[in-house]
Design brief:
The complex is a heterodimer of chains A (115) and B (121). Chain A has 115 residues and is mainly beta. Chain A is 0% helix and 51% strand. Classes of the chains: A mainly beta (115), B mainly beta (121).
Amino acid sequence: QQQVKQSPQSLIVQKGGISIINCAYENTAFDYFPWYQQFPGKGPALLIAIRPDVSEKKEGRFTISFNKSAKQFSLHIMDSQPGDSATYFCAASLILTGGGNKLTFGTGTQLKVEL
Amino acid sequence: GAVVSQHPSRVICKSGTSVKIECRSLDFQATTMFWYRQFPKQSLMLMATSNEGSKATYEQGVEKDKFLINHASLTLSTLTVTSAHPEDSSFYICSARPRFLLRDRVNYGYTFGSGTRLTVV
């Protein structure tokens, strides 16, 4: 019930295109869904996050779409740029039920944006 | 705000020796810190959760005597890999969560350090 499934494993997008990464979860008690961006040799950095009381959140070129009934959420990167090439992880947590609840990570998506 | 510093960024040690990795929250107090291990092209695997002033909680399969965690203050947690062996070579990452939630209701912390590349030879 703690699993978060992420797809695709890798993704190649042309510059200017839309990158879409999908995640599905099983635990309906999760109440915090962040996306992280990780460059080689670095720690993950929070990109954007959403709570399940909204269906979409947009920050610049990054949008999270959230489907509570389907238990799915996705990251859309508009106008993808070569600098967006990185590994992206979705995650889920029970953020409000305790002070120190852990994040459950997806398996990661390696995104490459080609010129 | 919410910066986590991890040191060292890279370390090479001989088999059988111990290595200490530090994780510091620079501009906030963190009652809870998390330690992860990441193999190449894989996801982050939670090793343990450390709470200030108490014993760490280890995930199943993680040897507590091998990976010693100390969270002695609200800004510092350390991971010591004892009697390191080549199979312990990995990328170790810490994460800290603020003691008080940030004003942005969807940015609940979990700030990550920059990671430590451990190579045991």
